[in-house]
């Protein structure tokens, strides 16, 4: 059976399963499952306020003086009364957003224990991680698009750091301190900027409280988000909540732990958290170096140990109709870089980030404006790349390169009141965004070289405006029209020319003189979407987007060695705007015994920017024709490309079993990316197919799941090798229960065991630059415990 026929068979089988489950309607109906409420805020500035049973309201909506309009009750809800607790492990499906959104709720984050966003999302349909240094440096990849096209935000502000400038750079957001992850698959550039042309990963936590804490025990699965301000009883008595998160792992002898504190009273809420994790070199199934035999090997991936920690403190003041808050966060990480070169030179990265964030919301008692929200942030990031200058000389250890990024960002959004336009109820939101960034990447090894470091110091400024309009034609039909325009100014220095062959050590004039560059761009983007409710609780969606992206500093100003990708990068200050034209259709079901989402998409890129390997090789100061030196010469270039693919995941509750519910789950995803001449775009994820079984009740969750990744043979002509397929078998068991606080002081406890890669397979990630030298971790067992006080 050919691969194409296999795909058709699997998709057809899934379709019959869907139709059969929806038509019967009898599966698992004897014991209906309490589904968790899903609240997402990343895709759109238009937020829908949910109603709930309330205390005596401190403020109520007023009737419109001259036109019909809608407004949600804006008071602080009382704790939910005697509702059955939502169960763990339920697939969260978002049906009220025009974009495709994957949600990683709080309880799944706690069970996963992943140390990076890329590791956390590694097997999600349509998403994977870069896996440059598993457990330390793995950035999310969405539908085959990475670094310069995937935005990462935390609490509405850019994550900061330098992870988009090098695959070996860590993302300064640790899942241990995060309450929910939202992944917008597909263009999210309309709200977050052209650097999110491929999608955005949004992490949220309570570092800036947006609601007063409540000490009443809430249902277990709240997705880490208390009901938002504003505000009843904000000036009530004080309240203190404490949570501890701990785990140990066998595969890397890892230990991690964190503590979160939320307190409030007299209109002030305070949050503090601290976390840390440490691991040694992780175990792998076999010798990791695919093409280089004879290297030292002791059953573990050489040079893969990690250590990280962080802390944050924040507070918010609540007033009638809103709040304003601020937080300061410190992230520190020291991690080793696996691979032959990394192990030989004992390469490691010592990274530090300080972040200050301010945000607020005000819901005026006005006829036209529903809410005003703002975010302001500043980050100061620095890391040193440390290693041996000479592998044979232990005394040559020192800093080989330093990266710094200083960034400031601000955004304000105004959501208008819905108004009746006769043909539809229209809700509009406007946004303004601005930012500034300064980058440096010097190396102390040869400070006088014209090719010192990856690039010369450079700056960029950006300002943008955007508008979202949602039209509610009926309760079952909605549409969205959105647009964005931004302006980007960059300044940097590059050699006037860099020929294919040169040697600045013997002839400094073999490259052009340093020349100031001042490129500027004005990307414009727009989208239109439709949501239609269908019978059987189905929701269909269709969207079309036109998105433009301005080139990033690394693509314009690079002119030196980049060890992470084993390339000598040559930027192009003459690059133009990259354009994506995309269509996407989806079908989802979030309720009932069958929950699923199915999405298909097609995107054409005009002027797709990528690293083009020339076939020449380089060292720190010279390039020659053909092979022979350690780095591949890569020039940033533009070509037209086409990305198309599909994603599917589902859960089916089969029926009652021993007081709980058992069921099956499955997933499938494929992305195919080619240039318009038919050649392959490099480093694309493989086709993946998976499934498993689960059983859960109000306390227990057990699950076993197998994901098969097919071999990836659709590779670039130069600089890429085929990647073998693998089978990833995971299993878990989790127990959650309420406690009598008089026992140990805790009111809720969650314990669990998770087994990863139980088949102990050799797993290589086709999107990783180091896949031929770095295996993913082998068989491991993780035990975790969370306590809420």
UniProtKB/TrEMBL annotation:
Boundaries of every TonB-dependent receptor plug domain copy: 98-200
Region forming the signal peptide: 1-28
Predominant subcellular localization, coarse grouping: membrane
SUPFAM superfamilies named in the record: Porins
Biased amino acid composition, Low complexity: 53-66, 74-87
Keywords attached to this entry: Cell outer membrane, Membrane, Receptor, Signal, TonB box, Transmembrane, Transmembrane beta strand, Transport
Protein name according to UniProt: TonB-dependent receptor
Family statement: Belongs to the TonB-dependent receptor family.
Topology versus the membrane: Multi-pass membrane protein
Region feature (Disordered): 48-87
Domain TonB-dependent receptor-like beta-barrel residue range list: 314-758
Phylogenetic placement of the source organism: Bacteria, Pseudomonadati, Pseudomonadota, Alphaproteobacteria, Hyphomicrobiales
Entry's localization field: Cell outer membrane
């Amino acid at each position: 059976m050919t691969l194409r026929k296999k795909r058709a068979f699997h998709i057809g089988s899934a379709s019959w399963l869907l139709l059969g489950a929806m038509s019967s309607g009898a599966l698992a109906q004897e014991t209906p499952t309490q589904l968790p409420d899903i609240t997402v805020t990343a895709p759109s500035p238009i937020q829908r306020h949910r109603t709930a049973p309330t205390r005596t309201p401190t403020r109520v909506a007023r009737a419109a003086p001259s036109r019909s309009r809608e407004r949600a009750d804006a008071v602080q809800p009382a704790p939910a009364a005697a509702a059955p607790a939502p169960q763990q492990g339920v697939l969260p499906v978002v049906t009220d957003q025009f974009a495709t959104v994957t949600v990683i709720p709080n309880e799944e984050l706690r069970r996963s224990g992943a140390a990076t966003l890329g590791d956390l999302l590694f097997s999600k349909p349509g998403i994977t991680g870069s896996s440059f240094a598993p457990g330390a440096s793995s950035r999310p990849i969405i539908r085959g698009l990475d670094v310069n096209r995937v935005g990462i935000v935390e609490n509405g502000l850019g994550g900061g750091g330098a992870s988009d400038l090098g695959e070996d750079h860590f993302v300064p957001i640790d899942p241990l301190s995060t309450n929910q992850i939202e992944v917008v698959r597909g263009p999210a550039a309309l709200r977050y900027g052209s650097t999110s042309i491929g999608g955005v990963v949004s992490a949220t936590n309570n570092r800036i409280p947006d609601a007063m804490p409540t000490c009443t025990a809430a249902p277990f699965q709240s997705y880490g988000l208390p009901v938002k301000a504003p505000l009843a009883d904000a000036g009530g008595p004080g309240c203190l909540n404490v949570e501890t998160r701990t785990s140990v792992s066998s595969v890397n002898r890892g230990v991690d732990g964190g503590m979160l504190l939320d307190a409030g009273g007299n209109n002030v809420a305070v949050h503090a958290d601290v976390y840390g994790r440490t691991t040694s070199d992780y175990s792998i199934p076999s010798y990791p170096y695919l093409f280089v035999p004879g290297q030292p090997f002791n059953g573990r991936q050489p040079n893969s140990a990690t250590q990280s920690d962080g802390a944050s403190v924040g507070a918010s003041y609540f007033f009638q109709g809103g709040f304003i808050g601020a937080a300061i966060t410190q992230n520190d990480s020291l991690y080793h870089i696996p691979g032959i070169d990394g192990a030989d030179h004992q390469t490691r990265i010592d990274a530090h980030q300080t972040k200050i964030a301010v945000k607020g919301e005000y819901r005026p008692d006005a006829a036209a404006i529903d809410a005003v929200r703002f975010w302001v942030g500043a980050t100061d990031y620095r890391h040193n790349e440390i290693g041996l200058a000479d592998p044979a000389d232990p005394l040559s250890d020192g800093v080989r390169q330093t990266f710094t990024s200083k960034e400031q960002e601000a955004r304000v959004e105004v959501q208008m009141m819905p108004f009746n336009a006769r043909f539809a109820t229209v809700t509009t939101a406007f946004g303004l965004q601005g930012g500034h960034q300064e980058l440096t990447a010097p190396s102390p090894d040869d400070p006088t070289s014209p090719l010192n470091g990856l690039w010369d110091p450079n700056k960029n400024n950006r300002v943008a405006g955007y508008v979202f309009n949602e039209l509610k034609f009926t309760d079952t039909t909605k549409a969205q029209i959105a647009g964005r325009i931004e302006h980007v100014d960059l300044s940097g220095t590059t050699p006037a020319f860099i020929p294919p062959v040169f040697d600045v050590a013997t002839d400094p004039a073999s490259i052009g003189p340093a020349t100031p560059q001042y490129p500027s761009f004005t990307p414009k983007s727009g989208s239109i979407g439709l949501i239609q409710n269908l019978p059987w609780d189905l929701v269909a969606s269709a969207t079309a987007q036109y998105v433009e992206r301005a080139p990033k500093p690394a693509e314009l100003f690079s002119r030196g060695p980049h060890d992470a990708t084993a390339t000598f990068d040559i930027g192009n200050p003459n690059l133009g705007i990259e354009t994506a034209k995309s269509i996407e259709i989806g079908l989802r079901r979030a309720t009932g015994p069958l929950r699923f989402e199915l999405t298909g998409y097609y995107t054409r890129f005009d002027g797709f920017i990528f690293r083009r390997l020339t076939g020449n090789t380089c060292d720190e100061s010279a390039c020659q024709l053909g092979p022979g030196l350690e780095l591949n010469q890569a020039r940033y270039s533009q070509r037209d490309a086409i990305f198309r693919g599909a994603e599917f995941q589902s859960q089916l509750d089969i029926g009652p079993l021993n007081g709980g519910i058992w069921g099956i789950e499955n997933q499938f995803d494929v992305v195919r990316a080619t240039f318009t001449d038919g050649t392959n775009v490099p480093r694309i994820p493989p086709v993946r197919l998976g499934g498993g079984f689960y059983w859960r009740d109000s306390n227990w969750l057990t699950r076993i799941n197998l994901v098969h990744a097919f071999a990836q043979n659709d590779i670039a002509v130069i600089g890429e090798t085929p990647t073998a397929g693998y089978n990833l078998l995971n299993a878990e068991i989790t127990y959650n229960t309420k406690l009598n606080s008089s026992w140990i002081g805790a009111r809720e406890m969650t314990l669990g065991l998770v087994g990863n890669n139980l088949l102990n397979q050799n797993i290589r990630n086709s999107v990783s630059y180091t896949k031929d030298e770095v295996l993913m971790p082998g068989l491991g067992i993780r035990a975790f415990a969370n306590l809420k006080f």
